[in-house]
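Q: Here's a chain of 142 amino acids. Please give me its 3D structure as tokens.
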Amino acid sequence: MSDIIERLRAAISDLPPKLRAEWFVVGPPWGKGDWVVSGHNDPHVAERVCDTEDFDGEQPHALELAAYIAAANPKAVAGLIAEIDRLRSDLAEARRDVARLDSGCIRIVSRDEFGEPCATLHVGEDLRAAIDAAIAAQGAKT
């Protein structure tokens, strides 16, 4: 998966800036929806990306191909890559949190001025159980 993402990153960075923008299917009055342009929906201003109709006009899925190509444009792919990067970062942070919770069990008791326990912090199995209970309680409320 990382190899594919890195190849996509490289391919996007190698594109001319005009082609890194959003892509549009050209429809009436300029076209019939079988070609794609970049940067603007007006083909007179935009950069031409591709034409999905072959020369004899017999391409059976030209409109569907153009719509797919326009939707899978470099700007959209870059957004998906950024989301994957964010999710990987979140996963790494969650794994660090789990490692901290798995590092043992510590119980810290806070006492009031009379020496009586007034708060307890549980780490390890007790904290995991408390977190699971809180999540279950939150789910029951919704």
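Q: Can you summarize the key feature?
A: The chain has two domains: 2-77, 91-141.
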